Amino acid sequence: MVDSNQKVIIDVSGVNQSFQIGDEKVDILKDLNFQLKDKTFNIIYGPSGSGKSTLLNILTGLQKPSTGKVLFAGKALYDLTPDQLAHFRANEIGIVYQQNFWVKSLNVIENVSMPLYFSGHSIAGSVKIATEALAQVGMASYAKKYPSVMSGGEQQRVAMARALVNNPLFVIADEPTGNLDSVNGDMIMSLLQKCQTELGRTIILVSHNMEYIPLADHLLHIEDGHIIETTSDTNITKIADELLDNMKKRVNHLSKAKHHA
Predict the structure, then answer these.
(1) Residue 94: CB partners within 8 Å, gap ≥ 6?
(2) Residue 65: is its pLDDT beyond 90?
(3) DSSP letter assigned to residue 7
């Protein structure tokens, strides 16, 4: 639940994103304005091609918008120098992707501690902090294993540890359950909730899974480059019920069409 007194931690104002393809200008994001509050659980959802990936790239400092401002904890993200932006991304944002990219020759503890080592920590110090991060997600006993021999769910839990290892303000998860079964997907969602409630992180989740919408404090529905915001428990519950009802109707319709084919 969002407290009205919680401070704004992310402020997006007047953001537009367009690309020039030949002689044609293609508008992807159109005048986005929204704020996310500190220590909240935020879900971005919408159909494929709606602009979710573009928005996520902008929020993570990978893609400067055509126009507009993005403030993270009061810092204008795209006013930073390249070195400042790289430092900000490495230290303030933890990212969990749908597909993980591991250094295959390194074991779990080495993969998780590597960002710390590159940030200037000693090897011993990096391993100590990485061990603590693994313990937070229940994966300390996997430290010496190699990611390539682990299940998808185990790898995503390790990815959560890697996202937390720099003690970031924000955890951004891009379809982190997309390749998982429901049991492992729910486990990852529980870890994200723990990051919010116990570790005090601001969560931004991009998901196609409508079942997770009731977990949010704040919804950002993006479609055709526009955003519709939803807050308050009552409104979010109502939207979740409507979405799930529409999904059931669509499945029933498709089932009937199949039997009549």
Answers:
(1) 162, 163, 164, 165, 166, 168, 170, 171, 172, 201
(2) yes
(3) P
- 69 forms beta bridges with 13
Q: How far is CA 234 from the centre of its chain?
A: 24
The CATH number fitting domain 8-100+172-260, selected from 3.90.1580.10, 3.40.50.300, 3.60.130.10, 3.40.50.2000? 3.40.50.300
**What is the DSSP-derived secondary structure letter of residue 44?**
E
Task: Name 241's Cβ contacts closer than 8 Å, sequence gap at least 6.
Answer: none
The string of pLDDT tens digits covering residues 86-115 is 988 888 999 999 888 899 999 999 999 998
CA distance 249 to 101: 38
Count of Cβ atoms closer than 10 Å to residue 249 Cβ: 10
Any idea what the Cα angle at residue 218 is, between residues 175 and 70, rounded to 5°? Answer: 80
Per-residue confidence (pLDDT) for residue 69, from 0 to 100? 96
Residue 81 makes CB contacts below 8 A (sequence gap 6+) with none
Residue extents of the structural domains in the chain? 8-100+172-260
Query: Both ends of the chain: CA-CA distance in Å?
Result: 47
* CA pair distance 258, 37, nearest whole angstrom: 46
- Model-level pTM? 0.87
pLDDT digits (tens, 9 = 90+) for 115-158: 898 888 999 999 999 999 999 999 999 999 999 899 999 999 99
Q: Which residues neighbour 90 within 8 Å (Cβ) at sequence distance 6 or greater?
A: 115, 118, 119, 166
Tell me what pLDDT residue 239 has: 83
Q: What is the pLDDT of residues 204-259, one digit of tens each?
A: 999 888 888 888 999 999 999 999 887 777 788 888 777 777 767 766 766 666 66
